[in-house]
Write a structure and sequence with these properties.
The protein contains 12 helices and 7 strands. By secondary structure, the chain is of the alpha/beta class. It has 2 domains: 58 residues; 209 residues, Rossmann fold, CATH 3.40.50.10880. It is globular, with a radius of gyration of 18 Å.
Length: 281
């Protein structure tokens, strides 16, 4: 997905929010904003937004010397999600369509997104999404691929969301690889976060190699690229991964909530819609 003009103020807002969390030093925060402003002047609109995000978060780390400003927030999100886990498992077991319910729960976890300036209440959002109609609903194609699949590559997004991903992986009951970011970026999941969520009990955990707030193939390592090419079923969670992978030449199923008007427009849905979209299926 290319960059739109509406992305530019969002870049500045993200830089300010993250820099303010990373340091109390007003001079350093101003340095971050000045640097990001200069960077945006030359950014290509053909780049994906996460490619620019990669440069922005690198600059924040460089200036503030804080490699993981969202660490404590991620820990709290994971603990809250783990507290909900037993009841959500029961909801799946008691539903008429356990797979679809697990997909809905996984998408509900996608509201834990600190890259967008929106408040969320995970308990309320789960209840809403369990009843919400899908704006894009490629469920039959998804079930068809799942039934044939011997291997699943599941590309994670946010740290707290990974607990909800675990529920879907358990329900699919296939050998799965869970993919995380190489280093901390916003509240995206890294290996330590995935382990804290219990993903190692249901999947192999690997890093994509990407340092961006998304899966950008040019930044990924060989192990991930080989698995991405050869997996029978690829699931991509969240907006950043959609931005990075929406034009790839293989089948991918995107699961997300459209929390941003730009992404909603690109998907031809409305803001706050939920999506299960397959490409090249």
């Amino acid at each position: 997905m290319k960059t739109y003009l509406q992305c530019i103020p969002c870049f500045m807002q993200q830089a300010y929010r993250t820099a303010k969390l990373a340091t109390n030093d007003q001079h350093k925060i101003k340095t971050v904003l000045d640097s990001v402003g200069d960077m945006i002047k030359t950014v290509s609109m053909e780049n994906t937004p996460p490619a620019t995000g990669n440069l922005i978060y690198h600059k924040i780390r460089e200036v503030t010397k804080n490699d993981d400003p969202y660490k404590e927030i991620k820990r709290k999100n994971i603990n809250e999600a783990l507290h909900l886990y037993p009841d959500l498992k029961e909801t799946v077991r008691n539903s008429d369509d356990p797979l679809l319910t697990a997909i809905r729960i996984a998408i509900a976890g996608n509201v834990i997104d600190l890259g967008v300036n929106k408040k969320f209440n995970i308990k309320d959002d789960i209840q809403t999404i369990l009843k919400q109609e899908f704006a894009v609903f490629d469920y039959e194609a998804f079930k068809d691929q799942l039934n044939k699949a011997k291997t699943i590559l599941y590309i994670g997004d946010n740290a707290g969301e990974s607990v909800f991903d675990r529920i879907l992986i358990e329900q699919m009951n296939r050998p799965a690889t869970y993919v995380v970011r190489e280093i901390p970026v916003i509240n995206d999941c890294i290996i330590d976060d995935a382990v804290a969520s219990g993903l190692q009990e249901v999947a192999e955990i690997i890093s994509s190699g990407s340092t961006a707030p998304a899966t950008i193939l040019s930044l990924c390592n060989k192990e991930f690229l080989d698995r991405f090419k050869n997996a029978d079923l690829v699931i991509s969670k969240g907006q950043g991964n959609y931005e990075g992978l929406s034009e790839v030449n293989r089948s991918v199923f995107f699961m997300l909530k459209a929390k941003c008007k730009v992404i909603a427009n690109d998907l031809e849905v409305q803001e706050n819609d939920i999506v299960l979209k397959g490409i090249n299926v």
